[in-house]
Design goal:
single chain, 318 residues, alpha/beta, Spore Coat Polysaccharide Biosynthesis Protein SpsA, Chain A, seven-stranded mixed beta sheet, 7 strands, 11% strand
């Protein structure tokens, strides 16, 4: 136990036979259960875990018959923790990229009931630029910005960090079967947490790379794919939080802004067609474009400010 709270670590594992032993061996003694979810690995991952089970009774191995993705593996572990009354569920990757020394920093805000969900932030450290591979650093930064808009947690960064701690209320509230099962799972979860107005914060954690891990992050196709997901999640949150659960005028600001953007695009097409056909700049069309552009920008900014104000109570007060 950690400060009178039971703690379970959920470890999604897929083809990590060379690193899962390091995760198990470095797990602190205060951890009550180590829930390792094998996501249909094709290497010796299961065999390695089963050997460790003989020496460590805290280990519970759950096997997926088919690969569900990292989000699916985490959801399975979360559901076990929920059903077995674990107070705090921590997620640590099976490839040993999360330093166990950072666990107290993640757990303390949740144990003290300051927040419901605490996540790591690898970008806080001053040496992050040198430790994190460049493509991952830049891709993560871009996705973090988009996730702020989609999730409403404007104070958070490093959205893709999966080193997290969730209290029992989160475990019992979120529908884990609806969780996005692939790489965008952290982004999906933040949106769902915001819909239910859970308090969330992030704490500095150490970036761990170049230990033999194999990254699934391919910026060239992952960022466009996740951008589509985040756009869908943004509309999902607007509808669920500001229309269904409680109306807020910021949805009108966003809606009118989107309409003006659509009108802007149509007039922009018309502008170039008229310019090409007549050889003259259609001044009225140009003025309409300018008006729609600046009006839409203003509406978006006001909507974002309203969203920040509506969610400021979900930020931890230091």
């Amino acid at each position: 136990m950690y400060k009178k709270k039971t703690v379970g670590i959920v470890v999604p594992a897929f083809n990590v036979s060379s690193l899962i032993g390091r995760v198990i061996e470095t797990t602190p003694a205060f951890i009550d259960r180590l829930v390792i979810v094998d996501d249909a690995s094709k290497d010796e991952t299961v065999k390695v875990i089963e050997n460790y089970q003989k020496k460590d009774r805290r280990i519970l191995l759950i096997k997926h018959p088919q690969n569900q993705g990292v989000g699916g593996a985490i959801a399975t572990g979360y559901k076990w923790c929920r059903d077995n009354k674990i107070d705090i569920a921590v997620v640590m990757a099976g490839d040993a990229q999360m330093d166990p020394a950072d666990l107290p920093a993640l757990l303390d805000p949740v144990v003290a009931n300051k927040v419901d969900y605490c996540k790591g932030n690898r970008l806080f450290t001053g040496d992050a630029w040198n430790k994190i591979p460049r493509t991952r650093y830049l891709g993560n930064s871009a996705l973090s910005l988009l996730t702020k808009i989609a999730s409403g947690y404007w104070h958070l960064a490093d959205s893709q960090c999966g080193y997290t701690a969730a209290n029992r209320k989160v475990l019992q509230t979120i529908d884990w079967d609806q969780m996005y099962k692939r790489y965008g799972m952290p982004n999906d979860l933040l949106v769902r947490l915001n819909i239910y107005s859970f308090r969330v914060t992030d704490v500095p954690v150490k970036p761990v790379y170049h230990i033999g891990e194999k990254s699934g992050f391919k910026a060239i196709w992952m960022i466009p794919r996740l951008s589509v997901l985040l756009t869908r999640l943004f509309f999902f949150r607007m509808f669920q939080k500001y229309v269904i659960r409680d109306f807020h005028p910021l949805v009108l600001f966003y809606f009118i802004g989107f309409l003006l953007t659509l009108v802007d695009i149509l007039f922009l097409v018309r502008f170039f067609i008229r310019w090409d056909s007549t050889g003259q700049v259609p001044e009225v069309t140009l003025l309409t474009i300018i008006f729609c552009t600046f009006s839409a920008i203003q509406l978006y900014l006001f909507a974002m400010l309203f969203d920040m104000e509506a969610n400021k109570q979900l930020k931890i007060n230091d």
